[in-house]
Amino acid sequence: MGRYLLRRLLNYVVLLFIAVSLAWLLAQTQLHPRMLFELRNPPLDPNAVESLLRSANVNENVPLLDRYLNWLYRGWPRADGSITGGIFRWTQEGFFGIPGFAFDWGTSVQGGGSVNEEISRRIWVSFRLVTAGWILGTIIGVGLGAWTATRQYRISDRVVTAFALLLVATPSYVTGEVAKMLATWANQKLGFQFFLFLGERSTGTLPDYPFAELIDRLQHMLIPTIVLTLLGMAGLSRLQRGLMLDALHSDFVRTARAKGLRENKAVMKHALRTALIPTGTYFAFQAAALFTGATFTERIFSFHGMGMYGVDTISKQEINGVVAVTAFGGLCYLVGAMLADVMVAILDPRVRLS
Fold first, then answer.
1. Annotated domain spans of the chain
2. How many other C-beta atoms are found inside a 10 Å radius of the C-beta of residue 154?
Protein backbone atom coordinates (compact mmCIF):
# COMPACT_ATOMS: atom_id res chain seq x y z
CA MET A 1 0.00 0.00 0.00
CA GLY A 2 2.85 2.37 0.82
CA ARG A 3 4.48 1.96 -2.60
CA TYR A 4 1.16 2.41 -4.35
CA LEU A 5 0.39 5.63 -2.46
CA LEU A 6 3.90 6.91 -3.14
CA ARG A 7 3.47 6.37 -6.87
CA ARG A 8 0.10 8.09 -6.78
CA LEU A 9 1.57 10.97 -4.82
CA LEU A 10 4.35 11.46 -7.36
CA ASN A 11 1.81 11.47 -10.19
CA TYR A 12 -0.32 14.04 -8.40
CA VAL A 13 2.71 16.24 -7.66
CA VAL A 14 3.66 16.30 -11.35
CA LEU A 15 0.08 17.17 -12.32
CA LEU A 16 -0.03 19.88 -9.66
CA PHE A 17 3.19 21.44 -10.95
CA ILE A 18 1.84 21.46 -14.52
CA ALA A 19 -1.48 22.95 -13.40
CA VAL A 20 0.19 25.72 -11.38
CA SER A 21 2.57 26.51 -14.24
CA LEU A 22 -0.37 26.81 -16.63
CA ALA A 23 -2.17 29.05 -14.12
CA TRP A 24 0.96 31.23 -13.93
CA LEU A 25 1.11 31.45 -17.73
CA LEU A 26 -2.57 32.36 -17.96
CA ALA A 27 -2.31 34.99 -15.21
CA GLN A 28 0.82 36.54 -16.69
CA THR A 29 -0.71 36.87 -20.14
CA GLN A 30 -4.29 37.81 -19.26
CA LEU A 31 -3.96 40.01 -16.15
CA HIS A 32 -2.55 43.51 -16.51
CA PRO A 33 -1.53 45.07 -13.17
CA ARG A 34 0.05 48.05 -14.96
CA MET A 35 -3.43 49.14 -16.04
CA LEU A 36 -4.46 49.81 -12.43
CA PHE A 37 -1.51 52.18 -11.96
CA GLU A 38 -2.29 54.00 -15.22
CA LEU A 39 -5.84 54.67 -14.03
CA ARG A 40 -4.71 56.41 -10.84
CA ASN A 41 -5.20 60.13 -10.45
CA PRO A 42 -2.75 61.78 -10.02
CA PRO A 43 -0.65 59.38 -12.11
CA LEU A 44 2.41 57.71 -10.60
CA ASP A 45 5.95 58.11 -11.84
CA PRO A 46 6.39 55.63 -14.76
CA ASN A 47 9.86 54.67 -13.51
CA ALA A 48 8.47 53.84 -10.08
CA VAL A 49 5.72 51.72 -11.64
CA GLU A 50 8.29 49.93 -13.79
CA SER A 51 10.45 49.17 -10.76
CA LEU A 52 7.47 47.98 -8.73
CA LEU A 53 6.30 45.60 -11.46
CA ARG A 54 9.82 44.22 -11.87
CA SER A 55 10.16 43.66 -8.14
CA ALA A 56 7.01 41.53 -8.20
CA ASN A 57 8.13 39.73 -11.40
CA VAL A 58 5.00 40.79 -13.29
CA ASN A 59 6.48 43.31 -15.72
CA GLU A 60 5.27 42.49 -19.23
CA ASN A 61 8.36 44.22 -20.70
CA VAL A 62 10.49 41.35 -19.34
CA PRO A 63 10.48 38.27 -21.64
CA LEU A 64 7.99 35.66 -20.52
CA LEU A 65 10.61 32.89 -20.30
CA ASP A 66 12.82 35.04 -18.05
CA ARG A 67 9.86 35.75 -15.79
CA TYR A 68 9.04 32.04 -15.61
CA LEU A 69 12.60 31.10 -14.68
CA ASN A 70 12.68 33.85 -12.07
CA TRP A 71 9.36 32.61 -10.72
CA LEU A 72 10.72 29.09 -10.43
CA TYR A 73 14.08 29.57 -8.80
CA ARG A 74 16.59 32.14 -10.07
CA GLY A 75 15.05 35.02 -8.17
CA TRP A 76 14.35 38.62 -9.00
CA PRO A 77 15.18 41.98 -7.39
CA ARG A 78 12.63 43.05 -4.82
CA ALA A 79 11.64 46.61 -4.06
CA ASP A 80 14.42 46.92 -1.45
CA GLY A 81 17.04 45.71 -3.95
CA SER A 82 17.53 42.29 -2.36
CA ILE A 83 17.66 39.12 -4.46
CA THR A 84 15.76 36.04 -3.33
CA GLY A 85 14.68 32.80 -4.93
CA GLY A 86 11.44 32.08 -6.70
CA ILE A 87 8.79 29.69 -5.43
CA PHE A 88 11.49 27.06 -4.92
CA ARG A 89 13.94 28.73 -2.57
CA TRP A 90 16.67 27.02 -0.60
CA THR A 91 16.73 28.12 3.01
CA GLN A 92 18.71 27.19 6.08
CA GLU A 93 15.57 27.58 8.21
CA GLY A 94 13.07 25.18 6.68
CA PHE A 95 10.48 23.08 8.45
CA PHE A 96 11.45 22.48 12.09
CA GLY A 97 14.73 24.32 11.47
CA ILE A 98 15.95 21.74 8.93
CA PRO A 99 17.57 23.20 5.77
CA GLY A 100 15.57 22.60 2.64
CA PHE A 101 13.35 24.13 -0.02
CA ALA A 102 10.74 26.68 0.97
CA PHE A 103 7.97 28.20 -1.10
CA ASP A 104 7.93 31.93 -1.78
CA TRP A 105 4.93 33.12 -3.79
CA GLY A 106 6.25 36.63 -4.22
CA THR A 107 4.79 39.98 -3.26
CA SER A 108 1.59 41.88 -3.86
CA VAL A 109 1.76 44.52 -6.58
CA GLN A 110 -0.72 46.86 -4.91
CA GLY A 111 0.34 46.69 -1.29
CA GLY A 112 3.83 45.25 -1.57
CA GLY A 113 3.12 42.72 1.17
CA SER A 114 4.15 39.09 1.16
CA VAL A 115 1.71 36.71 -0.52
CA ASN A 116 2.99 33.96 1.78
CA GLU A 117 1.89 35.85 4.87
CA GLU A 118 -1.50 36.65 3.38
CA ILE A 119 -2.38 33.10 2.38
CA SER A 120 -0.98 31.69 5.65
CA ARG A 121 -3.48 33.83 7.56
CA ARG A 122 -6.40 33.16 5.23
CA ILE A 123 -5.89 29.38 5.07
CA TRP A 124 -6.63 29.10 8.79
CA VAL A 125 -9.68 31.33 8.42
CA SER A 126 -11.06 28.99 5.76
CA PHE A 127 -10.08 25.95 7.81
CA ARG A 128 -12.00 27.19 10.86
CA LEU A 129 -15.01 28.14 8.77
CA VAL A 130 -15.24 25.05 6.58
CA THR A 131 -14.18 22.10 8.74
CA ALA A 132 -17.15 21.89 11.09
CA GLY A 133 -19.72 22.37 8.31
CA TRP A 134 -17.99 19.80 6.11
CA ILE A 135 -17.89 17.13 8.82
CA LEU A 136 -21.43 17.74 10.07
CA GLY A 137 -22.84 17.97 6.53
CA THR A 138 -21.20 14.67 5.62
CA ILE A 139 -22.38 12.80 8.71
CA ILE A 140 -25.94 14.14 8.53
CA GLY A 141 -26.15 13.74 4.75
CA VAL A 142 -24.97 10.14 4.78
CA GLY A 143 -27.24 9.30 7.70
CA LEU A 144 -30.31 10.92 6.15
CA GLY A 145 -29.66 9.39 2.75
CA ALA A 146 -29.27 5.88 4.15
CA TRP A 147 -32.29 6.26 6.45
CA THR A 148 -34.64 7.60 3.76
CA ALA A 149 -33.58 4.79 1.41
CA THR A 150 -34.83 2.25 3.94
CA ARG A 151 -38.14 4.18 4.11
CA GLN A 152 -38.69 4.66 0.39
CA TYR A 153 -41.91 6.50 -0.57
CA ARG A 154 -42.99 6.98 3.05
CA ILE A 155 -43.92 10.39 4.43
CA SER A 156 -40.54 10.85 6.09
CA ASP A 157 -38.76 10.04 2.81
CA ARG A 158 -40.85 12.53 0.87
CA VAL A 159 -40.40 15.31 3.44
CA VAL A 160 -36.62 14.89 3.60
CA THR A 161 -36.43 14.66 -0.20
CA ALA A 162 -38.44 17.84 -0.68
CA PHE A 163 -36.31 19.74 1.86
CA ALA A 164 -33.07 18.50 0.27
CA LEU A 165 -34.19 19.39 -3.23
CA LEU A 166 -35.22 22.85 -2.04
CA LEU A 167 -31.73 23.42 -0.62
CA VAL A 168 -30.03 22.05 -3.73
CA ALA A 169 -32.11 24.31 -5.99
CA THR A 170 -31.48 27.42 -3.89
CA PRO A 171 -28.26 29.38 -4.61
CA SER A 172 -25.84 29.38 -1.69
CA TYR A 173 -25.89 33.16 -1.33
CA VAL A 174 -29.69 33.10 -1.00
CA THR A 175 -29.44 30.44 1.71
CA GLY A 176 -26.87 32.61 3.51
CA GLU A 177 -29.02 35.74 3.35
CA VAL A 178 -32.10 33.87 4.58
CA ALA A 179 -30.04 32.49 7.48
CA LYS A 180 -28.96 36.04 8.39
CA MET A 181 -32.57 37.22 8.33
CA LEU A 182 -33.67 34.36 10.57
CA ALA A 183 -30.76 35.01 12.95
CA THR A 184 -31.69 38.70 13.17
CA TRP A 185 -35.32 37.76 13.91
CA ALA A 186 -34.18 35.28 16.60
CA ASN A 187 -31.98 37.92 18.24
CA GLN A 188 -34.95 40.28 18.41
CA LYS A 189 -37.10 37.60 20.03
CA LEU A 190 -34.37 36.70 22.53
CA GLY A 191 -33.72 40.35 23.41
CA PHE A 192 -29.93 40.10 23.02
CA GLN A 193 -27.39 39.35 20.29
CA PHE A 194 -26.89 35.62 20.55
CA PHE A 195 -26.34 34.96 16.84
CA LEU A 196 -23.36 36.96 15.56
CA PHE A 197 -22.69 36.56 11.86
CA LEU A 198 -20.51 39.42 10.57
CA GLY A 199 -16.79 38.76 10.69
CA GLU A 200 -14.76 36.21 12.58
CA ARG A 201 -15.05 37.99 15.92
CA SER A 202 -16.39 41.12 17.57
CA THR A 203 -14.35 44.29 17.14
CA GLY A 204 -15.36 45.99 20.39
CA THR A 205 -14.64 45.19 24.02
CA LEU A 206 -15.71 41.69 25.00
CA PRO A 207 -17.71 40.93 28.16
CA ASP A 208 -15.71 40.04 31.24
CA TYR A 209 -16.35 36.32 31.74
CA PRO A 210 -14.24 33.18 31.30
CA PHE A 211 -13.44 32.14 27.71
CA ALA A 212 -15.18 35.23 26.35
CA GLU A 213 -13.03 35.33 23.23
CA LEU A 214 -13.61 31.66 22.43
CA ILE A 215 -17.37 31.96 22.95
CA ASP A 216 -17.44 35.07 20.78
CA ARG A 217 -15.69 33.24 17.93
CA LEU A 218 -18.07 30.28 18.26
CA GLN A 219 -21.06 32.63 18.10
CA HIS A 220 -19.71 34.13 14.87
CA MET A 221 -19.15 30.67 13.39
CA LEU A 222 -22.55 29.24 14.31
CA ILE A 223 -24.66 30.60 11.43
CA PRO A 224 -22.01 30.07 8.68
CA THR A 225 -21.49 26.51 9.95
CA ILE A 226 -25.23 25.84 9.83
CA VAL A 227 -25.37 27.15 6.25
CA LEU A 228 -22.42 25.03 5.11
CA THR A 229 -23.86 21.99 6.90
CA LEU A 230 -27.21 22.38 5.15
CA LEU A 231 -25.60 22.87 1.74
CA GLY A 232 -23.35 19.85 2.14
CA MET A 233 -26.07 17.69 3.65
CA ALA A 234 -28.59 18.37 0.87
CA GLY A 235 -26.54 17.13 -2.06
CA LEU A 236 -24.91 14.27 -0.18
CA SER A 237 -28.21 12.92 1.14
CA ARG A 238 -29.57 12.68 -2.40
CA LEU A 239 -26.44 10.91 -3.58
CA GLN A 240 -26.39 8.51 -0.64
CA ARG A 241 -30.07 7.69 -0.99
CA GLY A 242 -29.64 6.64 -4.61
CA LEU A 243 -26.57 4.55 -3.86
CA MET A 244 -28.27 2.96 -0.88
CA LEU A 245 -31.34 2.03 -2.92
CA ASP A 246 -29.13 0.33 -5.51
CA ALA A 247 -27.36 -1.60 -2.77
CA LEU A 248 -30.59 -2.65 -1.03
CA HIS A 249 -31.95 -4.13 -4.26
CA SER A 250 -28.72 -5.93 -5.16
CA ASP A 251 -28.40 -9.70 -5.25
CA PHE A 252 -25.97 -10.04 -2.35
CA VAL A 253 -28.27 -8.18 0.05
CA ARG A 254 -31.25 -10.32 -0.99
CA THR A 255 -29.10 -13.42 -0.49
CA ALA A 256 -28.09 -12.23 2.98
CA ARG A 257 -31.75 -11.75 3.89
CA ALA A 258 -32.69 -15.15 2.46
CA LYS A 259 -30.04 -16.80 4.65
CA GLY A 260 -31.76 -15.38 7.72
CA LEU A 261 -29.54 -12.36 8.43
CA ARG A 262 -31.38 -9.78 10.46
CA GLU A 263 -32.58 -6.73 8.55
CA ASN A 264 -30.44 -4.20 10.44
CA LYS A 265 -27.29 -6.26 9.86
CA ALA A 266 -28.08 -6.74 6.19
CA VAL A 267 -28.54 -2.99 5.84
CA MET A 268 -25.57 -1.83 7.92
CA LYS A 269 -22.98 -4.50 7.16
CA HIS A 270 -23.69 -5.16 3.49
CA ALA A 271 -25.78 -2.42 1.89
CA LEU A 272 -24.41 0.63 3.68
CA ARG A 273 -20.77 -0.37 3.38
CA THR A 274 -21.16 -0.95 -0.35
CA ALA A 275 -23.05 2.31 -0.82
CA LEU A 276 -20.31 4.23 1.03
CA ILE A 277 -17.60 3.35 -1.51
CA PRO A 278 -18.56 6.05 -4.08
CA THR A 279 -19.44 8.40 -1.22
CA GLY A 280 -15.91 8.07 0.15
CA THR A 281 -14.50 9.51 -3.06
CA TYR A 282 -17.08 12.30 -3.10
CA PHE A 283 -16.40 13.03 0.58
CA ALA A 284 -12.67 13.53 0.00
CA PHE A 285 -13.05 15.77 -3.04
CA GLN A 286 -15.88 17.76 -1.43
CA ALA A 287 -13.49 18.79 1.33
CA ALA A 288 -11.00 20.02 -1.25
CA ALA A 289 -13.66 22.00 -3.10
CA LEU A 290 -15.02 23.64 0.04
CA PHE A 291 -11.73 25.26 1.05
CA THR A 292 -11.58 27.31 -2.13
CA GLY A 293 -15.26 27.19 -3.10
CA ALA A 294 -16.93 28.73 -0.05
CA THR A 295 -16.60 32.15 -1.66
CA PHE A 296 -20.23 33.22 -1.30
CA THR A 297 -20.36 32.11 2.32
CA GLU A 298 -17.18 34.01 3.12
CA ARG A 299 -18.43 37.10 1.34
CA ILE A 300 -21.88 37.07 3.00
CA PHE A 301 -20.51 36.55 6.52
CA SER A 302 -17.33 38.67 6.06
CA PHE A 303 -14.86 35.85 6.61
CA HIS A 304 -11.60 36.78 4.89
CA GLY A 305 -10.60 33.30 3.75
CA MET A 306 -9.10 31.79 0.63
CA GLY A 307 -12.30 31.97 -1.41
CA MET A 308 -12.64 35.73 -0.95
CA TYR A 309 -8.90 36.19 -1.47
CA GLY A 310 -9.11 34.37 -4.81
CA VAL A 311 -11.82 36.74 -6.04
CA ASP A 312 -9.97 39.81 -4.74
CA THR A 313 -6.69 38.86 -6.41
CA ILE A 314 -8.38 38.56 -9.80
CA SER A 315 -10.21 41.87 -9.47
CA LYS A 316 -7.01 43.61 -8.33
CA GLN A 317 -4.87 42.01 -11.06
CA GLU A 318 -2.64 40.36 -8.46
CA ILE A 319 -0.84 37.76 -10.53
CA ASN A 320 1.18 36.25 -7.69
CA GLY A 321 -1.89 35.97 -5.50
CA VAL A 322 -3.91 34.25 -8.23
CA VAL A 323 -1.16 31.67 -8.75
CA ALA A 324 -0.86 31.06 -5.00
CA VAL A 325 -4.61 30.47 -4.67
CA THR A 326 -4.50 28.09 -7.63
CA ALA A 327 -1.64 26.19 -6.03
CA PHE A 328 -3.54 25.94 -2.76
CA GLY A 329 -6.65 24.68 -4.54
CA GLY A 330 -4.58 22.12 -6.43
CA LEU A 331 -2.94 20.98 -3.20
CA CYS A 332 -6.37 20.53 -1.62
CA TYR A 333 -7.45 18.33 -4.52
CA LEU A 334 -4.19 16.39 -4.28
CA VAL A 335 -4.90 15.62 -0.63
CA GLY A 336 -8.51 14.80 -1.53
CA ALA A 337 -7.39 12.35 -4.21
CA MET A 338 -5.02 10.63 -1.78
CA LEU A 339 -7.78 10.39 0.84
CA ALA A 340 -10.16 8.98 -1.77
CA ASP A 341 -7.68 6.23 -2.66
CA VAL A 342 -7.24 5.28 0.99
CA MET A 343 -10.95 5.39 1.80
CA VAL A 344 -11.88 3.22 -1.18
CA ALA A 345 -9.27 0.66 -0.13
CA ILE A 346 -10.65 0.62 3.42
CA LEU A 347 -14.32 0.35 2.41
CA ASP A 348 -13.92 -2.13 -0.45
CA PRO A 349 -12.08 -5.35 0.51
CA ARG A 350 -11.75 -6.24 -3.17
CA VAL A 351 -9.31 -3.36 -3.65
CA ARG A 352 -5.70 -4.18 -2.86
CA LEU A 353 -3.12 -1.41 -2.96
CA SER A 354 0.31 -2.76 -3.68
1. 31-113, 120-347
2. 11
Per-residue burial over 244-278, b if 16 or more Cβ lie within 10 Å, else e, is: bbebbeeeebeebbeeeeeeeebbeebbbebbbbb
- Nearest one of 76, 77, 60 to 25, comparing CA atoms: 60
Complete DSSP assignment for 311-352: HHHHHTT-HHHHHHHHHHHHHHHHHHHHHHHHHHHHH-TT--
Is residue 338 within 8 Å of 298, Cβ to Cβ? no
Please name which of 142, 151, 70 lies closest in space to residue 106, comparing C-alpha atoms. 70
Cross-strand pairs, 217? none
Q: What is the pTM of this model?
A: 0.80
Superfamily classification of domain 120-347:
MetI-like (1.10.3720.10)
Q: How far is CA 103 from the centre of its chain?
A: 20
Q: Which of 74, 108, 67, 68 is nearest to 88 (CA)?
A: 74
Say how far apart CA 89 and CA 104 lie, in whole Å: 7
Q: What tens-digit pLDDT sequence spans the chain (354 residues)?
A: 677 778 888 888 899 999 999 999 999 999 888 888 887 777 788 888 888 888 888 888 888 888 888 888 754 444 444 444 567 766 655 544 555 556 788 888 887 788 888 888 888 888 888 888 888 988 899 889 989 988 888 999 999 999 999 998 988 889 989 999 999 999 998 888 888 888 888 777 777 777 788 888 888 889 999 998 998 898 889 888 988 888 888 877 778 778 777 777 777 777 777 787 777 777 777 776 777 667 888 888 888 888 888 888 988 899 999 999 988 888 888 888 888 777 777 776 666 655
Backbone angles phi, psi at 89, to 5 degrees: -125, 125
